[in-house]
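Attaching the record inline, Q. Sequence:
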Amino acid sequence: MSKIDKDADQIDHKTCRYICDAVGERLQQSMRPEPALSSPLQQLLDEMQRREGDRH
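Structure, as predicted:
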């Protein structure tokens, strides 16, 4: 049995659950969707995409 296997056996279920929950919360915070673009900027992006589509 490796050292990693032995160490894993020493973490109880409650501690493991706490760690998983904490990691999950941090991932959710860092992966929040970006705020919507302003209307003028969104219009410019839409126009750019339309023009690129016309070229192809």
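The CA atoms of residues 15 and 22 lie 11 Å apart. DSSP finds three helices and no strands in the chain.

More tomorrow.
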